[in-house]
Write a structure and sequence with these properties.
The structure is a single chain. By secondary structure, the protein is an all-alpha fold. The chain has eight helices and no strands. Helix 3 crosses helix 4.
Length: 148
């Protein structure tokens, strides 16, 4: 299953970037989000009993507020990701997108006071190093000065 998710995520990046060569990134994200909404409402939520929960969210003001905040945050995140894909290319855009793991640690510590443990810090460092290796030419990064 995880392999299928990775392939789907990679395919989305490649197909979206190709599509943004023809249309504006804002239009591309609009098409993507509309298609995603239809698929979730028609093909996913009915099979997992999610339509009842989704409907209940509209009846509870506090739940609706959280739903609106989550929707706005998600839309902003996807808009930034699609812009990064369009501006930097698929490889760099995907590598930068994975830094959400780092941001989760930072915001978890700032907002919910989640302690930063040694395994968490090591994992964060590995993610950062992996991202750096993915978006840069390591040889140029290590070549600090050119001596003739």
């Amino acid at each position: 299953m995880s392999l299928l998710a990775c392939l789907g995520w990679a395919a989305e990046g490649v197909i979206s970037t190709f599509g943004m060569d023809m249309v504006d990134p804002d239009i591309a994200i609009g098409i993507r989000e509309a298609a995603s909404c239809v698929v979730y409402l028609v093909a996913v939520l009915p099979f997992v009993g999610g339509l009842v929960i989704f409907g209940d969210a509209f009846g509870a003001p506090q739940a609706l507020m959280y739903l609106i905040i989550a929707a706005f945050s998600g839309a902003l995140s996807y808009l930034a990701w699609y812009r990064a894909l369009n501006m930097a290319g698929v490889g760099r855009g995907m590598a930068l997108n994975i830094t959400y793991c780092l941001w989760a640690i930072v915001f978890g510590w700032l907002i919910t006071k989640t302690p930063v443990t040694l395994p968490l810090a090591i994992g964060a460092c590995l993610i950062f190093i992996g991202t750096l290796v993915s978006v840069t030419n390591v040889k140029e990064l290590l070549d600090l000065r050119k001596v003739s």
